[in-house]
């Protein structure tokens, strides 16, 4: 717990948002700078999360999320330049 300036106690510190460049650099550093290993791990993580979403889709009732249901695909934006 940490005390804030307003006298409130906070159980968790606010995370510092990462910039996309920082996240890419951290992922590459984790794999010793190997871009192929980094991409392979990210693909494995994506597959794992898809399995988790599929399980959640079958296990959660619609009332639990007030009508929300998981989506397997995300909205695709324009590729980065």
Q: State the end-to-end distance.
A: 42 Å
Oligomer: single chain
Average of pLDDT: 77
Structural class: mainly alpha
Our Rg estimate from Cα atoms comes to 19 Å
Write a brief caption for the model:
The chain has about 80 residues and is mainly alpha-helical. It has helices at about 20-30, 35-60; strands at about 1-5, 10.
Describe this structure in words.
With 81 residues, the chain is mainly α. It has 2 helices and 2 strands, in the order ββαα. Strands 1-2 form a two-stranded antiparallel ribbon. A hairpin with a 5-residue loop joins strand 1 and strand 2.
For this entry, give a set of tags.
81 residues, 2 helices, extended
């Amino acid at each position: 717990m940490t005390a804030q300036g307003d006298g409130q106690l906070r159980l968790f510190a606010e995370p510092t948002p990462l910039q996309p460049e920082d996240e890419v650099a951290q992922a590459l550093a984790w794999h010793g700078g190997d871009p192929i290993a980094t991409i392979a791990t990210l693909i494995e993580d994506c597959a794992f999360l898809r399995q988790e979403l599929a399980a959640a889709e079958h296990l959660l009732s619609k009332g639990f999320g007030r009508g929300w249901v998981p989506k397997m695909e995300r909205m695709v934006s324009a590729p980065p330049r």
